[in-house]
Amino acid sequence: MERETLRALVASARNGASGAVLIDGDPGVGKTTLMDAVLDRLTAVRILRIVGYEVEAALPYAALQRLCRPLAPYVNELAPIQREALRVATGLAEGPAPERALVGLGILSLLARAGDDEPLVCVVDDAQHLDGESLDVLGFVARRLSAESVAMLFAAREDEAVARSLAGVPRLELAGLDAESAAAVLRDAVDGEIDPGVVADFVSFTDGNPLALRELGAQWSIEELTAVSIAHSPVPLGRRLEAHYSARVATLSHDARRWVLVAAAEATGDAAVVRAAAARLGLPPTASGEVEALHLVEIQGTVRFRHPLVRSAVYNGATDADRRAAHAALCIETSARGRREFAAWHAAAACGGPDAGVAAELAAVADLAGARGGFASRARLLARAAALSPEPTLRAERFVSAAEAAIAAGAGVLSRQLLARADRAALDPVGRGRLLVVEAMCAVYLADPLTVRDGLAALLCAADAFHGLAPDREQKALLIALNSSMTVEDRAIGADLEQLAIRMRAASDVESPCAVVLRATSAFALEEYEVAVPLLRTAVAMLDAMDDDDLLEVSALAVSPCIALWDCDAASRLLTRTVRAGTERGALREVDSALWVLSAVELSRVNPRRAGEHLAQAEELRRALGYADEQTVNAAYLAWQGGPRAVVEQIVHAMSESGYGGVVRMAVGALGIREIAEGEYHSAFDRLAGLIRRPYLQASHHHLAELVEAAVRSDNRAAARAAAATIDRYAAASGTTWVTGLAERCAALLADDADAERHFLASIETLDTHSHRGDCARSRLVYGEWLRRVRRRADARVQLVAARDVFTEVGADAFAERARRELTAAGAKPDESAAVVGPLTSQETAVARLAAQGATNADIGSALFISSNTVDYHLRKVFRKLGVTSRRQLAEHFPRS
User: Fold this and answer.
1) Considering 173, 194, 229, which residue would you say is the last residue of a domain?
2) What values do phi and psi take at 192, rounded to 5?
3) Which segments constitute the HTH luxR-type domain (predicted)?
4) In degrees rounded to 5, what are phi and psi of residue 788?
5) With 0-12 CB in 10 A as exposed, 13-18 as middle and 19+ as buried, what is 394?
6) How distant is the alpha carbon of residue 137 from its chain centre?
7) Are 106 and 93 in contact (CB under 8 A)?
8) Per DSSP, which regions of 555-691 are E strands?
């Protein structure tokens, strides 16, 4: 069955349908043998094959470079940004450190292009020994395969890093042989006739592990096997199999044992390096012969161990002094060949204790890894450098630097572990500030409810530590603190918004782009709105003028001053730029965050369908990265979609308990808006009034208009007038389309019949733009209701039909249903045939929207991190589903937002 699974995978690749599989199982169970059997005599395909080497684990993209070296002629055909990312990642060029996702897209494009010429099979054996960057990138590529002529086969033992990096890749768990086949293996291996009962026992003892059966048959006599069977003694499996190999190694001469130790320590199989290092240790050229005679290794250009457990047995069975001597010799030989990273690794392994020189070299190599985008490798190298650093302050600083690299690589747990090894007392103020910043980032990244509420206070302490010493770090710490505060809101422990705002104002004296945002936000929090508006406008203008790289650095906060000005268009513009720039550079975490916030912006201006598209795109990116779940569930979108109220409220309670006040506010507001749509005005008023009483920066701006409607309809007119007066003040100071249109709607709801129509019409006229069509429909809805009440039923139907059609278009189903009810009451039968885009998958929708905007297949592939082949595949399906024949026709289904 396993062979058929792999053959089907390869056959699909030949037919242009890509796929991947992870074969996992115990050592010796036959993973490599299985792949060999499938690939043997395979024709009309190109096979790329590598084996993971443990020595490369700290060298970023080392395995990837080996796998793709035969594809070098295709590199120049890649998009320039992808080509440059691959060159920097593999050390062939200097430049900004590329994001792993961008490297992944480059590799995906490279494999797809090569597969166009000839179907491609990529085989990665012993994947547990790959460097972290290569493993992550290959996992990314495996998850994005679709319509390319590429098959990927991974083989690995059970390993946490492999499971994490290859999450989402189909698994093929390889168990032992069936009883009949296992018995045949043992009978073939033994010399003579063996009792069937003994055979059955050993098949059971080994779970059919073919390597164990072969080793037992070759090394034990029939009498020994029978005795073990009778006594039910332990047999060599797993660790015992390693001990079995250790016993065989122990029979070697002293020179042969030292030679095989050098081979085990070298790990890449480079026979020339092994021979040179062995000679440096005074070993004769014939030392390897004895090892080969026992079939422990095979030397044919490279040194290949019979099984990874042989290498493990050799290395672990040697004395510490002998291991360090082998690594010292290998350090000299790899250094002489210009392999600086390998030399540093061997130098570290040769150390018997702290060594400042070796630690400094490891730190330098770590810098090289970081420059290539290898943040995970940088973290591991710096951690080793820290452990070897004799000076306490430098050791602590290197652990902090390692933690910073780990969090940059997305390894929150590792980052925390590294911080725990840093001696805080040995750090200077800047070092302590850096440590506090990373701690806070870990809490957010890991969604840790025990520490996420402490983040604001910790970041303020970090800013204090930086004050007067590192103003740029101080300002960035405060921007992170602002983001943290909007995440937890009033659930923060040990600090509040006022303290943050005062601290931001104090730090904004040193001019920088960060200072502009800090100054504007602090004014918004501390001053009257009219005072803050000019500073907020300056901040938005500055953000608009930023180049993409700088905008990415502050992207999480770009929306705040925009919404403070009631300017959804500016927020959408900056966030869309962030998504575009982030996808171009492979900064998918920033893209994920921007898409999430974009969805919130669209919900606030009544466009749940567009919000859902953003969330679906974010979900697709998380799948690309191997993250199956959201850290924070978007309960607000669930409420808009008509999810059961009890379920939404359960999620709200859980998020509140976890400290996510911002998400809770969004969800509670969405429930209130849904209750308005369903006519439950008293309940809506109670929900929304609570939010308005506890405002948090701009988070409840749009809830003011909702409160006015709920208050008017629930006979709380005093509260309605107070909320409307607040909106009027915002409108007078800001003057944007959104707040002006909402202010007119609120005035209409509160006006007597003589003045109401004038305000309704002014609201509709102001909001009648593509970006605010949802809110315009809300104004048409209440205007239509008013018209029906004053018995102008024909006029009411005109407004209600227009409102219903827009609500249907933007996916505001509850409001569409309310419009239908009002139409029925106005004497018309609602038309249920309003057009809805679909039925497309989220991926097809994203492809179609970009194509409708004029993007090429290559552009779309880069934006969605798929290959051009997959784009073409999706477009063919979109055309068929929508009944269109050209991209121009797509624009009718997907107008620009």
Assistant:
1) 173
2) 120, -175
3) 833-897
4) -65, -40
5) middle
6) 12
7) no
8) none
Query: What region, left, alpha or beta, does residue 175 occupy, with left being phi > 0 and alpha being psi -120 to 50 degrees?
Result: beta
Cα–Cα distance measured from residue 210 to residue 353, given in angstroms and rounded to the nearest whole number: 42
Torsion of CA 734, 740, 743, 748, to 10 degrees: 160
Q: Quick check: 764 and 737 in contact, CB under 8 A?
A: no
Mean pLDDT, residues 78-102: 88
Using alpha carbons, select from 422, 573, 564, 577 the residue that is nearest to residue 501. 564
Residue 690 identity: G
The more confidently predicted of residues 893 and 760 is 760
- Sign of the torsion angle spanned by Cα atoms 751, 754, 758, 761: positive
* Count of other CB atoms within 10 angstroms of residue 508: 22
**What are the two backbone dihedrals, phi and then psi, of residue 93, each rounded to the nearest 5 degrees?**
-150, 160
Q: Return the sign of the alpha-carbon dihedral for residues 137, 139, 143, 146.
A: positive
Helix or strand holding residue 193 (H, E): none
Ordered DSSP codes for 835-869: ----S--HHHHHHHHHHHTT--HHHHHHHHT--HH
Q: Which residue's entry shows tokens 């690589």? A: 409
Structure tokens at 388: 């070897």
How do residues 815-872 score in pLDDT, each as one tens digit?
Answer: 999 999 999 999 887 554 344 444 777 788 888 888 888 888 888 887 777 888 888 8
For 703, residues 6+ apart whose C-beta sits below 8 A from its C-beta are: 669, 672, 688, 691, 692
Cα–Cα nearest to 584, from 258, 20, 69, 101: 101
Same domain, 77 and 57: yes
DSSP-derived 3-state class of residue 587 = coil
Range with the largest mean pLDDT of 18-27, 363-372, 698-707, 717-726 = 717-726
Q: How many CB atoms lie within 10 A of CB 332?
A: 16
CATH code, domain with 401: 1.25.40
How many domains is the chain partitioned into structurally?
8
> What angle, 0 to 180 degrees and rounded to 10, lies between the N-to-C axes of helices 703-713 and 681-693?
140
Which residues fall within 8 angstroms of residue 228, CB to CB, at 6 or more apart?
Answer: 220, 235
Cβ-Cβ contacts under 8 Å for 350 (sequence gap 6 or more):
324, 325, 327, 328, 331
Joined tokens for residue 572: 């959408």
Query: Using CA atoms, how far apart are residues 74 and 109, in angstroms rounded to an integer?
Result: 10
The residue behind tokens 């975490």 is: 589
**254: number of Cβ within 10 Å:** 9
Phi/psi at 609 (nearest 5 deg)?
-65, -45
pLDDT value at residue 896: 63
**Residue 583 burial (CB count, 10 A):** 23
* Coil/strand/helix, residue 326: helix
Residue 251: both structure tokens together = 């029979």
**Can you tell me the distance from the alpha carbon of 454 to that of 659, in angstroms, rounded to the nearest whole number?**
10
Tell me which amino acid residue 460 is.
Answer: L
Which amino acid appears at position 379 of this protein? A
Position 523 in a domain: no
Other C-beta atoms within 10 Å of 398: how many?
27
Q: Do 11 and 101 share a domain, yes or no?
A: yes
The overall longest dimension of the chain from CA atoms, in Å, is 109
Crossing angle of helices 868-882 and 842-852, in 10° steps, is 90
3-state secondary structure at position 23: strand
Q: Please give the structure tokens belonging to residue 606.
A: 């009544």
Q: Which domain holds residue 862?
A: 842-893
- What are the residues facing 152 on neighbouring strands? 20, 122
Residues 765 and 660 in one domain: yes
